[in-house]
Amino acid sequence: MIPYLQVEDLTKSFGDLVLFHQISFGIAQGQRIGLIAKNGSGKTTLLNILAGKEGYDEGKITYRRDLRVGYLEQSPQYPEELTVLEACFHHGNSTVDLIKEYEKCMETPGNPGLEDLLARMEHEKAWDYERRAKQILSQLKITNFDQYIKHLSGGQLKRVALANVLITEPDLLIMDEPTNHLDLDMTEWLEEYLSRGTLSLLMVTHDRYFLDRVCSEIIEIDNKQLYSYKGNYSYYLEKRQERIDATNAEIARANNLYRTELEWMRRMPQARGHKARYREEAFYELEKVAKQRMYDANVKLDVKASYIGSKIFEADHLYKSFGDLKILDDFSYIFARYEKMGIVGNNGTGKSTFIKILMGLEKPDSGTLDIGETVRFGYYSQDGLKFNEQMKVIDVITDIAEVIELGNGKRLTASQFLQHFLFTPETQHSYVYKLSGGERRRLFLCTILMKNPNFLVLDEPTNDLDIVTLQVLEEYLQNFKGCVIVVSHDRYFMDKVVDHLLVFKGQGDIRDFPGNYSDYREWKIAKAEHDKEEAKPKEEKTQRVRLNDKRKMTFKEKKEFEQLEKEIAELEAEKKAIEDALCSGTLSVDELTEKSKRLPQLEEELDEKSMRWLELSEIEG
Fold this sequence. Notes:
The protein is α/β, with parallel strands linked by helices. It folds into four domains: 3-236, P-loop containing nucleotide triphosphate hydrolases (Rossmann fold), CATH 3.40.50.300; 243-290, no CATH class; 313-522, Rossmann fold, CATH 3.40.50; 551-621, Helix Hairpins, CATH 1.10.287. A six-stranded mixed sheet has the order 5-6-7-3-8-9, with helices on both faces. A six-stranded mixed sheet has the order 14-17-18-12-19-20, sandwiched between helices. Strands 2-1-4 form a three-stranded antiparallel sheet, with no helix packed on it. β6 (172-176), α7 and β7 form a beta-alpha-beta unit. α3 runs antiparallel to α4 (114-123). The longest helix is centred in the middle third of the chain and has 33 residues, at 233-265.
């Protein structure tokens, strides 16, 4: 493989805070590497250093000569007066600089250096730069090229920045949280685009499905050091746990030996004069190992939510529009106790507006929303980060509560609660203004959970949170004894947390789907194939069953629904039995043939009955 980038003994610090110390790694042609670290460990700083936007203390960075590098920043910025297309020519890259050089040459009498420029324009494919820009923007569902940047949403701006990077077809692409603010369709498009390309890639992302499907290697910054794993995210999880177990065992052994050696070191000073010098030096090395932080085992944070009654909220005939854009169209829904609902849909379909109506921050055009008296909301919003910058982290939390009740007489102090969400004692006594963007998000989350709500409403909670924090939050929500609504584009997070989905399809068309996001995606694919086979393009329109239609199942449909559940369970049991038998190695040739024939028949029956079960499940029982 051709080496593209080599990093040797890189060190970066801010004052007395060391982010990483003497880390080394390389990127070669065709490598796709994911970078993982806790918030505040220097992920974005490292990417900025590699992109030449930030300096470093020590070390060496070597790029291959003439390497084209594209960098997608986490929060891209453009002058507001630019149009979408102008923005694609704004950020300096080699092709844009070459086009400007060519235009200047053409304006200069005699056109000095024109031949060389024409050859370079041909080599860089600069002639069709604008065409490529429009093509990529269209694929990213941005078709109004004259729209001003100031009128774009966060998701649209991210897509313009993404187009900016992809147009140049770089050899090495560096990306900081590429899926932030992208809806699910765009995330899956980008996933496919990067997977089929031949470019090299280094990226930071919290989207674990994206990481798993795009990257084949993981590097991790942990405790100022860098660790490398030659595999995808699933492989990384397994090997990281092995490393943690080995490190904890080493620290435990060092602690045992340290106690013995410490006693030896404390003997009378006159005896120390005869001690072997090498043993003293070994003691200090041992002390460094023994005083390392042990990795915390998985401690379940089983918080007792405040009491919640049987009445949660009832939405009755809600309507909401902005001009011609319908958000809610005769929407009715009764939310159940302990329900965990996920909300998905493309940007602009009204997910956040629905949440704001629920929270009382936005009024519906008509209809009623009745919230139970015992409901205590905890609302995590994208624009809720408002802190006193001069406060210490621990004081932000203790101002809310000194302790949080776990039930059965157990409780956690504010400091212990912060530690569970990965704030070390040192960070807790640091000032808010020193926190990274991800650490601020994590602190905001802690301020909400510390209030001990019984109904959590989380609007894009995964943006800017690191993977380790997401794992802690997932575990918290799985054990949470209350209600949860999550709006998120993070498929992995949704699969872990929610029981069912509300799917916002646009113009007030909202469907209830009984399952997680992966179930929904599989069903969507199966349904698309089924519709294609049936060749009835108008079927979707005629078959629409809205939540608010309130059509009851007929007696016959109820009986069919119950019968289907039994039949599906029986078919699945038969399928498992056949699969186990086929793997047992004990069947005769005739039995093998018979069971092999039966298996595809079973699959077909299961698909047919499952599809019918889904259709009936959308009808109110």
